[in-house]
Amino acid sequence: xxxxxxxxxxxxxxxxxxxxxxxxxxxxxxxxxxxxxxxxxxxxxxxxxxxxxxxxxxxxxxxxxxxxxxxxxxxxxxxxxxxxxxxxxxxxxxxxxxxxxxxxxxxxxxxxxxxxxxxxxxxxxxxxxxxxxxxxxxxxxxxxxxxxxxxxxxxxxxxxxxxxxxxxxxxxxx
Length: 174
What we know:
The chain is mainly alpha-helical. The protein has helices at 8-13, 22-52, 61-75, 97-109, 114-143, 146-158, 160-166. The chain contains 7 helices and no strands. The relative contact order is 0.14.
């Protein structure tokens, strides 16, 4: 901090930018650079998984999210439901946010080439998964220390279950 008996204003006058000690500012910068490096690793690993799995085909719930997103991208509306309704009427079986996000990605690539749209959706999920790693780091920082937060984020960046869930056109990255 600014020293014994020194007010923050006096610290600023003494050359400390905002009354925060240079050591503390240095720790903050090291944490930020460390977190940026871990987030870059998280995104890189997720993109490598996408590149390593070029023949990805959605299955189970992902197929339905893809169907809804294609309808939203092509027509601007939700398709008829195929689940739990009379005469294929509307349903709340699938929450709308994820298909809306996927539809945005699909608008960029078009919906006619399935592989291209799935790749776009998986890249979106890679970004969301990287955001989840950042949130994990911030929670660990609030609970423990910068060092623990960086280690926790590094583990989350390469943790296989998070990688798999982040890249399957499922809602888990949200």
